[in-house]
Design a protein that fits this description.
This protein is mainly alpha-helical and 143 residues long. It has five helices and no strands. It has a single domain, classed as Up-down Bundle (Ferritin), CATH 1.20.1260.10.
């Protein structure tokens, strides 16, 4: 179980360092016309918080201690940028997160841990697709 605790703590670190998690505390600048985009990001922020809660609970259920929260300095001041600037960064951050989850998939021994990693990986895949669709919808078409 120690390996599972270490793997889950690695993923918990990743969740804490996610740019989307940071947006929950410091929302980006967005005008009224971007309400739908902001709603999508708020939904993702809620999912990220749920991932943290589930990972923490599973680590504790396995007899481990969740690692303390660490912030990425590069995510400071996100609230001062508009969505057009942040969207490519969010997509890159989400791809990094998804790649890490895929790399950890299949490494856990506990059935509940494996299911949790698979479920969160699927959520990250959905998030990435939605962010990419949002970016595509915001890209002006050449005339």
């Amino acid at each position: 179980m120690a390996d599972d605790i270490s793997i889950l703590n690695d993923l918990l670190d990743l969740q804490w360092q996610s740019m989307i998690t940071r947006l929950g505390e410091a929302p980006p600048y967005a005008g009224a016309a971007e309400a739908e985009s902001v709603a999508l990001l708020q939904e993702m922020v809620a999912d990220e918080a749920e991932h943290v809660r589930l990972l923490t609970a599973t680590i504790q259920a396995l007899g481990g201690a969740p690692r303390p929260r660490v912030y990425h300095a590069q995510h400071a001041r996100v609230q001062y940028h508009d969505l057009s600037y942040l969207l490519p960064l969010l997509i890159g951050d989400k791809q990094h997160t998804l790649d890490a989850y895929r790399g950890k998939a299949g490494q856990t021994r506990d059935g509940d841990s494996a299911k949790l990693v698979a479920d969160i990986t699927q959520r990250h895949e959905t998030h990435l697709g939605r962010l990419q669709a949002l970016a595509t919808s915001r890209t002006p078409t050449p005339s």
